[in-house]
Amino acid sequence: MLNWELFLTAFQKISSRYFIVALIGFLLFYVIFRRKYFYLKIQQKFPKNADYLRELFYSVVTMLIFSLIIVILNSPPIAEYTTRYQLIETYGWAYYFGVFPILFIMHDLYFYIMHRIMHHPYMFKYIHLVHHKSTNPSPWAAYAFHPLEAILEQGIVIIFYFTLPIHITHLAIFFLFSIIYNVYGHLGYELYPKGFNKSTIGKWINTSINHNQHHQYFKGNYGLYTLIWDRLFNTIRKDYDNQFENISNRKPGPVG
Fold it and tell me: What span, in angstroms and rounded, lies between the C-alpha atoms of 186 and 134?
């Protein structure tokens, strides 16, 4: 039987992260400063209201699925086979903080592989296309997945639960960072400064422009947090740097 208390707690935590972060991005760039910073919008138009509603609908479905998987992982008999622990002293503070970069790398690689698979014609047509209906994404698109894709997205949590020991707060903190970066990736505006894409560090970091190109053209730029795998497997778009430079050099102008 479903543990409804745990389900509602999980949904509250997941949805609050999503709605708070996405709402901040939406209010700042799509409402309050809609006209002032329009010249910096990656695609020089705004999505339609129907797009926002579709993104919100699928995001809520995604969060329900995420919550259900969390309940399953934390309920008997599965819970007793996971690597979750409650006391930081069990592994110490060095391990506690040292796990975060490992989670980061694991999720980044997992997402890239999964994302490439999702672009197989069959998978794309029947599953991933839901997310790609946001050809001009907004912050609400962060979790706008087909239910089957939502399950695949949450697969990284299952991997975390059965590989390295994770404290009960590890995932809460990690996925707060994750949703912040996910909303930034779908923001429709670039927040990194001019020239960042060619800097020593910046050329390895995913940007909003990079991911926006993926939504607009459907091909290339498959990374999540970094561009490591895109550069390693030569899947980064050839026009990415030019696009970044062109948008960075825009001057204030009228709202379209």
Answer: 9
Q: What is d(CA 189, CA 212) in angstroms, rounded to the nearest whole number? A: 9
The one-letter code for the residue type at 146 is H
Tell me the whole-structure pTM to 2 decimals: 0.94
* Residue spans per domain, the chain: 4-248
Whether the CB-CB separation of 197 and 39 falls below 8 Å is answered with no
Cis status, amide bond into 77, omega within 30 of 0: yes
Tell me which H or E stretch contains 6. Answer: helix 4-26
Q: Let me know: does 185 contact 211? Beta carbons within 8 Å.
A: yes
pLDDT at 255: 56
The beta strand positions in the chain, using DSSP E, are 84-85, 166-167
Q: How far, CA to CA in Å, does 185 sit from each of 192, 209, 211?
A: 11, 8, 6
The conformation of residue 32, written as its DSSP 8-state character, comes to I
Say what the pLDDT of residue 1 is.
Answer: 80
Which one-letter amino acid corresponds to residue 17? R
Cross-strand partners of 85: 167
Say how far residue 103 (Cα) sits from the centre of its chain: 14
d(CA 74, CA 9): 12
